[in-house]
Amino acid sequence: YPIYIDIRPWGSVATILSHTYFRNRVKLPKNIAGLLLSAILSDTLNMNSPTCTPTDQLMVATLAKFAGVEDVDELAQEQFRAKSKVLQISSIPEILLADLKRFNLGDIAIAFGVCETVSAGVEMLLSRKREIIEEMQAEKAEKQDTYMFFAVIDVLKLNSQLIICGDAEQELAEKAFDCKMDEKTRVMNIGKRVSRKKTMVPPIGETLKNGFKLSEKAAEANKKALSKDNVEKAGHLELVYNKDCVGEIRRVGSKLKKASLKLKAMAAFTRGFVKASNSN
């Protein structure tokens, strides 16, 4: 039998499902209406995402009536807070891979993960950025991605922080977004860009299509990051169970973390040595 596909330029697949219910004159049960409403609010960031369309807004208003929801904004914020609580019990690989997508531009592979949360979740993730960067480097080596990015999106303030895992990513992001990375934190504030599909990946794609080239230093660092030696050091992901039989995805056998710490210690020693030499 031929496969039936319904593709529409709307902000959520739940909008298509809702439209299908109404088009076929099927009465929506209250609980199903609530699920579809919640899905649209999540996908469109409470209708604040640039991917949101008038059709999504119409469906939200209609589904709210069927679900008996009086305050749509409060429902959306309650969802966002609940989603943020999950981050507290998730491992770094689970957070990074939960919403990671890969794009190919010729022979260039781009991995781009996002995490949508509230302000408290943003602070928590940025406080763990060192672990996130180490996992990004391991995942990049293992999957042989040319570039890897991870954006932390504040769904209430509608602001995004881009975590940068290497020199190649820094040069490409600074060119694509016309922003500067904070050298101390390796985080770049990319402002109101909250949609990976519409405002994050397209500028990167355009920059690459327009002939962007890495500096010699960044190109060499990226080549090393994707080397066979780094692939072997990356270890692998494994589902590990605790005493309560709750599973968690962890990276096992990674040696990149130890190498990173060693390089940082050497860099700190070098800076200290240079400083002492200059004072003499």
Topology readout:
Blueprint: H1 13-23, H2 30-43, H3 54-67, H4 72-87, H5 92-97, E1 100-105, E2 108-117, H6 119-127, H7 129-143, E3 147-154, E4 159-164, H8 167-177, E5 187-189, H9 196-209, H10 216-225, H11 228-233, E6 236-241, E7 247-252, H12 256-279
Parallel strand pairs: 2-3
Antiparallel strand pairs: 1-2, 3-4, 4-5, 6-7
Description:
There is one protein chain. The protein has 12 helices and 7 strands. By secondary structure, the chain is α+β, with helices and mostly antiparallel strands. The longest helix has 24 residues, at 256-279. The radius of gyration is 22 Å and the shape is globular.
Q: Give the count of helical stretches.
A: 12
Instruction: Assign a percent range to the helix content.
Output: 40-55%
Largest sheet: 5 strands, mixed
* Biggest sheet: strand arrangement: 1-2-3-4-5
- The quaternary state of the protein chains shown equals single chain
Q: Low-confidence spans: pLDDT under 50, at least 5 residues?
A: 258-277
How many runs of DSSP E, i.e. beta strands? 7
